[in-house]
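User: Okay, second chain of the day. Same drill as before: sequence in, structure tokens out.
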Amino acid sequence: MSKLNDFGFGTQIRKSPFFDATVRWGAKDFSVYNHMYIPRDFGDPEQNFWNLINEAILCDVAVERQVQVKGPDASKFVQMMTPRDLSNMKVGQCKYVILTNQFGGILNDPVMLRVEEDCYWFSLADSDILFWAQGLNVNLKYDVEITEPDVSPIQLQGPKSKDIMVKIFGNEILELKYYWFKKFKLGNINLLISRTGWSSEFGYEMFLLKTSDGDELYETLMQEGKELGLHPGHTSTIRRIEGGMLSYHSDMDINTNPLELGLDKFIDLDGAFDFVGKDALIEIKKSGIQRKQVGLIIERERLKGPNTKKWDIYKNQQYVGQVTSAVYSPRLEKNIALAIVDIEYSDIDTSLKIKIDDEMVDAKITKKPFFDPNKLIAKKSSI
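Assistant: Same drill. Structure tokens below.
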């Protein structure tokens, strides 16, 4: 068992409601995300991957902080923040959205939940959208309150997650559709549970509505689920790259626009509604993108771990882009990567060179996602 005093934690970074429980269950390393500690290591990342795809893992993702927009103008305000058309969004529904600035740059790519008619949550990637949203409204003066509520998600992902959830919550949990949510109780613990998750696998996210219940929730889930194959775990870099899932600050940032990333289906430039960055994105589409995100197969011996810095990419000794995320997939038995390259070098089967430390390594552009491209695993209702 890990001990709390093994880690050099400070008071300026928040601990999640599940922090102490993750330490008891073997968390060995942490990083910082949205000003909060997140477990990144429970031992062997490859074993964590196999646990995820063959059984189930419980992940503390309380770092996905919620920004709540509530009030009479809530629907107008959230639509102003994103290029995705939200006009048909229902209470109880989730949507993946892109948030852009005035230049079309990506500020965040949260999952948004419509909690009530006049209340929305942005379940955030790693950037300060609370400040952005509050700043936007200083001059716009929409009739909304913009806050961070006491809400902390934890996710149970993997093929055995459904059986575990049925055991704990009963058959009502089976009524949840992909990207929808409902309110549940576990004893006296109030939860909002969605059929979502950052894994590309079948699973659920539980939004804890009271910080003080975090330890009890984590322990209850682990104790009830372990005989059905539940393991303590962390979000899997291997699986998310296999699934082509983007990580903010790694694969995109404020200098990346959604058209470069192939996220066109989440952008409605022809809609009647306005949003921050609309004019910029219309101009980018008109003039054409200069870069494009691609998938790569890196043709070298097995990578020992994910990249910890971005690797430069060359074609004919000319710099043409960067590898943003790379890892060895034990299932595919290949080194796979996400990269952004100059548009003229983005065709499938294009051969490139990657500079890793002082070595020039061969790579070839391939289709992405690398596994289950239509996300049938995550979407399917029966497993």
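The chain has three domains: 11-63+150-241, 66-147, 290-369.

User: Thanks, on to the next one.
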